[in-house]
Amino acid sequence: MKLGARIFKTGVSIALALFLAQFISLQGSVVSGISALFAMQPSVYKSYKTIIEQFQGNIIGALLAVAMVQLFGVHILIIALSSIILIAVLSQLKLQNVTGLAVVTQLIIMDHHQGDFFQTALMRFAFVMIGVISASIVNLVFLPPKYETKLYYNCLNVCGDIFKWIRLSINGTSEYHIVKKDLEEFHSRITSLESQYNLYKDERAYTKRQAYQNTRKKILFKEMISATRKAYELLRKLNRYENDILNLPEDLRIQMKFELDELMSYHEELLMRVTNKVSLGRAANTSLVNDQFKEDLLDVYLKELNSYHAREENYYKQHVFQVIGAMFEYREKLEHLDTLTHSFYNYHKEEKKITVEDENFDM
């Protein structure tokens, strides 16, 4: 069982909401805890956005509940009809994200049996908003998300696992079904990584200058994730066309293996360079992969194609072409990341650099 920061923050926000609600009334204060649970968000920006949207949704839910009770009274069918109307209204107003808590607000207000109805409705609405505000405060000041650290280590870990299978696959020592199963896991991890990046991208800066600095960092991390996906796509093609690769002539296989080793070493260096742990060393676009190697690989492959029809082969040239094409696409993506890294550290030295703590945040 893994307990993340968001789980702890949810617990703290519930405790804070219940504590604050007790100053208004002990009766019904548990609604604040429920509201805090619904309102907890994975990012600070989403928390800020949630306060506005939740306030709008809860106001609509509360007003609808009061109107329906005053017009038709309290009945099971009236409550159900009110929920349908509320969901439809929120959908039209593009407030689907707050539907859950808005419906809860409507239900607890309509569930009134004694005392002054308007006073009870106002109190329960206040309980709901206390929960929303408590969740936002906790999300802002308590264990703020470390997006750069998470993204960096997740890229590093996913790439490391992919590289292991690439080396085994090109040597013919991998099991097809095991690699295929791990590919599904890699796809899930990269998708999760991209979702985490979207949260990072949504974060807002307090000043215009800081916004420009953050934009450059976000572009760099976007390319890191894109390069990771290219490595995944390469492994997927190597696994899919494993038999074709193993039946290639030895000289072509050796050249492909050499090229893959260079590409993976290049990627590993770039990941270290993003955090400024290794010197830039070379000018942008001057990669570890020498152009001569690329020409050699193409020359060997073209020679093989010329003699393909002269003898009977145990592989499909179209499949091999897809693998080699994936290698070149991967290389181009790494060179683009190389260019961005050089630009970031050579031309923006006055800016605050990427901060990565020595922690492991693997998914």
From TrEMBL:
Similarity annotation: Belongs to the UPF0421 family.
The entry's keywords: Cell membrane, Membrane, Transmembrane, Transmembrane helix
Protein name stated in the entry: Aromatic acid exporter family protein
Organism this protein belongs to: Macrococcus equipercicus
Upper classification of the organism: Bacteria, Bacillati, Bacillota, Bacilli, Bacillales
Transmembrane intervals: 63-90, 121-143
Localization (cell): Cell membrane
GO CC annotation: plasma membrane
Keyword Membrane: yes
Major subcellular location class: membrane
Membrane topology (UniProt): Multi-pass membrane protein
Top-rank lineage group of the source organism: Bacteria
Any Pfam family: ArAE_1
